[in-house]
Amino acid sequence: MEEIIVHGGQRLTGNVHIEGAKNAVLPILAAGLLASSGQTRLTNVPILSDVFTMNNVLRFLNCKVDFDEINKQITIDASDQLSYEAPFQYVSKMRASIVVMGPLLARLGHAKVAMPGGCAIGTRPIDLHLKGLSALGATIERHDGYVEASASKLHGAQIYLDFPSVGATQNIMMAATLAEGETVMENVAREPEIVDLANILNQMGARITGAGTETLRIEGVPSMHGCDHSVVQDRIEAGTFMVAAAVTRGNVLIEDAIAEHNKPLISKMREMGVQVIEEDAGIRVIGPDQLKPTSVKTLPHPGFPTDMQPQMTILQLCAQGTSLLTETVFENRFMHLEELRRMNADFKIDGRSVIMYGPTDFCGAQVAATDLRAAAALVIAGLVARGYTEVTNLKYLDRGYFNFHRKLAKLGAHIKRVKAPDETVLPTHGTYTNEAVE
Ligand SMILES: CC(=O)N[C@H]1[C@@H](OP(=O)(O)OP(=O)(O)OC[C@H]2O[C@@H](n3ccc(=O)[nH]c3=O)[C@H](O)[C@@H]2O)O[C@H](CO)[C@@H](O)[C@@H]1O
Ligand SMILES: C=C(OP(=O)(O)O)C(=O)O
After folding, report:
1. What is the rounded distance in angstroms from the CA atom of residue 316 to the CA atom of residue 135?
2. Residues spanned by the domain of 376
3. Is 168 near ligand 1, meaning CB less than 6 Å away?
């Protein structure tokens, strides 16, 4: 077990490099299953535990997967006979493995995937995925904790999603690439990661138009092949560093961050008095001495991303006055707040909303991450807290952030990642060096 120890109070300054997006690369890896010939070569791949898990799922399905971690490249060869079953041991580790269902069904006419359970942030059903696959002609059966889809031939269909689910959009879009005829999907997710997926699918031979809008049109093709693709930058990692820079009154250039992908965050940060400057090299964030309070509501893209909600609450808690945040996407994404209460945060949760009474005089404490973005939020709180903050449960952080502590240390944070002895004794004086250790 490891933990991150932060000694708060440093302004972050300098440049930070952003990785390829977790939420783009996971469905893209699954898309590799669709190539019956050639190799799919991905660059700008983030080194994350979720990527290792997805690689293992693909290997289990009989793909050859080679991860060159030094060059952040993955090569997938799915030209051999694939197997159709993704068992519980993988799906339970990572819900996103459900997106192998669409490609397997398209390629083999058969997919058997363990039902993903809920997770810390919500129940997360897959009814919309299954409705869409069934509209394409699949027979869906649920038994023994598995969902099994089969079809002798998938056909195009008109599909309206009740909610613009990211995963359902990806699964159905991938299944439709090899279906006979045209599929029209309405009310689909419009996230940049959907656009990135559509881009690679088109390079692989698919015929998809409308990615990034509410309607996708997919003209089925008989087969697909490998291609080269560079994964889009991670807007959530970029946003996380933007918040860290702002909250510490820092001055940080988030290199190569794409402002277009982070519009709602940029808009809210400016409203709070943060300088956000779009430069050729990326996005520069300069934090003010005092933050103004604001209201935020999470929504599907292009609304404010739920994956930035926990980090945003730190900014709001630091603001001079009362802020409001309403979480509309997941029903249980406030678990980080109870940990923050232990760091002096004052707030009231009312259903899907939280009222935060700033400014918070954060004080260091031992806190445990409950999910991926909660982990990042707790570390950011530690950056502004008096004294030492110890964040445990880093397996969540590692799902979505590569070298988080090292990147923060390079920006001037006093932060270390250490092996956690059962009873860690926090130093009572002095500061940590900037050198991060494992
Ligand atoms: C790997 C990945 O890309 N994960 C992202 C993806 O998750 P994911 O694809 O799971 O998120 P969805 O967009 O599907 O879920 C959004 C909401 O729709 C509900 N829903 C979803 C599918 C369904 O069949 N039925 C249903 O009711 C979910 O419970 C949730 O309340 O989008 C989320 C919303 O932006 C992000 O927080 C996650 O980081
Ligand atoms: C919720 C997230 O991811 P996942 O859907 O993989 O759990 C996230 O990236 O914040």
Report:
1. 43
2. 2-19+233-419
3. yes
* 202 appears as a binding residue in the annotation: no
Quick one: 90 and 168 in the same domain? Answer: yes
Q: What is the mean pLDDT of the chain?
A: 95
pLDDT tens digits, 154-169: 999 999 999 999 999 9
Which atom of ligand 2 lies nearest, measured to the CA of 373? 10
Express each pLDDT in 99-155 by its tens digit. Answer: 999 999 999 999 999 988 768 899 899 999 999 999 999 999 999 999 999 999 999
Rounded to 5 degrees, what are φ and ψ at 248? -95, 10
Of 22, 92, 330, best ligand 2 pocket probe by most atoms within 8 Å of the beta carbon: 22
The CA distance from 422 to 400, in Å, is: 25
Residue 431 lies in a domain: no
116 and 89 part of one domain? yes
Chain Cα centroid distance, residue 365: 26
Other beta carbons less than 10 A from residue 289's beta carbon: 7
Same-domain status, 119 and 170: yes
Nearest CA to ligand 1 atom 13: 165
Which residue has its alpha carbon closest to ligand 1 atom 12? Answer: 165
In a domain, residue 425? The reply is: no
- In a domain, residue 429? The reply is no
d(CA 277, CA 82): 48
Is 318 noted as a catalytic residue in this protein? no
Q: Among 165, 332, 401, say which to mutate for ligand 1: greatest number of ligand atoms within 8 Å of CB.
A: 165
Supply the pLDDT for residue 422.
Answer: 64
- Whether residues 339 and 352 share a domain: the answer is yes
Q: Are residues 215 and 241 in the same domain?
A: no
Atom of ligand 2 nearest to the CA of 121: 1
Percent helix / strand / coil, the chain, rounded to 5: 35, 30, 40
**Cα 312–Cα 317–Cα 321 angle in degrees, nearest 5:** 120
d(CA 341, CA 98): 35
pTM: 0.96
53, 98, 163, best to mutate for ligand 1 pocket (most atoms within 8 Å of CB) = 163
**Last residue of a domain, which of 230, 259, 274?**
230
The verdict on whether residue 22 carries a ligand-binding annotation is: yes
- Same domain? For 179 and 59 the reply is yes
Report ipTM for this prediction: 0.99
For residue 22, which atom of ligand 2 is closest to its CA?
Answer: 9
pLDDT at 292 over 60: yes
Q: Is the CB of 309 under 6 A from ligand 1?
A: no
Asked whether residue 93 falls in the same domain as residue 113, the answer is: yes
Whose CA is closest to atom 3 on ligand 1? Answer: 23
Q: Within this chain, do residues 213 and 333 fall inside the same structural domain, yes or no? A: no
**What is the per-residue pLDDT for 2?**
96
Q: Count up the domains in the chain and report the number.
A: 2
